[in-house]
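re: the backbone from monday

yeah here it is again, tokenized this time
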């Protein structure tokens, strides 16, 4: 299995990965996790020589160099210990790292056999002494991925401009879209759903979080309003609310997490004139932050009209 879950920030991609693993009954011993970032390298991924302090014996305190296996090599070694057991390498935030540089020659291994006795194994091998050194099942330094070795990644669509994945890399993974639709529990109750107070200039409206971000996503993406597309939408878990906390705490979470995103990543990306998510009285982030804190009117009349249309079922 080679699959990437992708979608807007907070849609629950990591949640979907965890749910998949729980459903398969996979224990932590067979799960290896890593998060890519701009400074993450091939050596971090596969392994490298690192300085180590000798802790005992006549050379205590001396510096020596030892090979430290990277997360990929650790997971591959585990997979070859017992090929009847599934091993999962989970890579969070793949687009935040330079995948071409991080995978390096491992890229060749992502091409898997689709039939025959070697189904699921890498179609081609690569010669790599570093990775193969402690894996007895491999022939010499010839490395292949076994059928029980799966790679699962997550990608935020709003982060794809950090490092662009090329088509050759993308096509070696299945891509599963995680939508912004609300997630429910077994009783069909919407998760992570709290009441929000919004002042429209006359009255304070109480709206559920799942309704609020639903209206927000339409307003952000649709050409009728901001026209920024799905990349700027948010998911249900963009803010993970403490369900046992008070409404004041929930409002503070929105103020500190959502407003910054809407001001700097959404409103400032809009090229349309005359369409705003915020009220005309809001001319700076300070105005927005203070206005929301004081329960003032910070969202535009057009946005409130969208909320009204949503509630009538006509949006």
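seq for it, each position gets an aa:
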């Amino acid at each position: 299995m080679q699959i990437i879950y992708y979608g807007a920030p907070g849609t629950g991609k990591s949640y979907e990965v965890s749910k998949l693993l729980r459903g398969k009954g996979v224990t932590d011993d067979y799960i290896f996790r890593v998060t890519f970032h701009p400074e993450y390298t091939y050596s971090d991924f596969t392994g490298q020589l690192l300085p180590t302090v000798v802790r005992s014996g006549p050379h205590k305190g001396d510096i020596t160099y030892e090979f430290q296996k990277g997360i990929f090599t650790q997971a591959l070694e585990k997979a070859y210990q017992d090929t009847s057991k599934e091993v999962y390498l989970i890579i969070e935030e793949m687009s935040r790292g330079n995948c071409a540089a991080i995978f390096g020659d491992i890229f060749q291994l992502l091409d898997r056999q689709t039939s025959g006795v070697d189904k699921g194994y890498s179609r081609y091998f690569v010669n790599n002494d570093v990775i193969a050194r402690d894996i007895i099942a491999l022939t010499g330094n010839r490395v292949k991925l076994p059928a029980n070795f799966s790679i699962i990644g997550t990608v935020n669509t709003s982060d794809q401009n950090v490092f662009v994945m090329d088509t050759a890399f993308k096509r070696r993974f299945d891509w599963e879209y995680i939508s912004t639709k609300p997630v429910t529990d077994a009783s069909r109750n919407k998760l992570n759903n709290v009441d929000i107070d919004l002042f429209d200039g006359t009255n304070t409206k109480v709206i559920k979080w799942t309704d609020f971000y639903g209206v927000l996503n339409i307003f952000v993406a649709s050409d009728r309003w901001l026209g920024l597309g799905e990349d700027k939408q948010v998911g249900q878990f963009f803010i993970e609310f403490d369900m046992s906390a008070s409404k004041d705490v929930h409002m503070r979470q929105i103020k500190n997490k959502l407003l910054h995103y809407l001001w700097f990543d959404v409103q400032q990306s809009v090229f349309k004139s005359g369409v705003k998510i915020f009220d005309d009285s809001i001319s700076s982030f300070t105005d927005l932050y203070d206005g929301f804190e004081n329960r003032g009117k910070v969202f535009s009349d057009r946005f409130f009209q969208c909320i009204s249309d949503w509630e009538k079922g006509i949006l």
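The chain has ten helices and eleven strands. The chain has a mean pLDDT of 89.
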